[in-house]
TrEMBL record:
Regions that span the bilayer: none
Organism of provenance: Actinoplanes utahensis
Keyword Transcription regulation: yes
Protein name: HTH tetR-type domain-containing protein
The HTH tetR-type domain, residue ranges: 1-55
Origin superkingdom: Bacteria
Matching PANTHER family: HTH-TYPE TRANSCRIPTIONAL REGULATOR RUTR (PTHR30055), TETR-FAMILY TRANSCRIPTIONAL REGULATOR (PTHR30055:SF148)
Amino acid sequence: MLDAIRELLTEVGYDRMSIDEVARRAKASKATIYRRWSGKPDMVAAALHGMITELPDPPDTGSLRTDMIATLTTLCRVYERKHPIVLSVLSAIRTDPTIGRLMHDHILDSGTAGADIVFARAVTRGELPALPDVPAVVEVGKALLWHRLLLSGRPLDDPWVVHVVDDILHPMLGLPG
């Protein structure tokens, strides 16, 4: 069902996507969909959240810097996949406060588990004296990512990832850039 939702969001957008069409594509009944979600906003938020929760554990490269680069690179690939879907939902966020709240709860407030692992390893290796404010670091990283993807239209490429880690996130952690 989540794949059907994502496909429809990309093809027709949030406003034109219907639960009937999701049911048809997913080969499920509308009752099955309504047992799982209360309506279209919840359904869409779950589809987008699922794209975040499908992330693998971050690799242990041996250093905080390279762990952060690897993790941010993986996030970039996920967000590139989400880009057309998020674009299809942007207009709905302005007119439907429910979808805006759900997007915030499922997308903007998610994704700290991988960062928790990265920073805990850095503390264990002695690269950080203590765990940082992980949600704040993740929030800054996501804000930069979304800004680049949605507003600048520039690629989420390797030089950009290295710039974010070296010039923004490392100094934020009190580490040299």
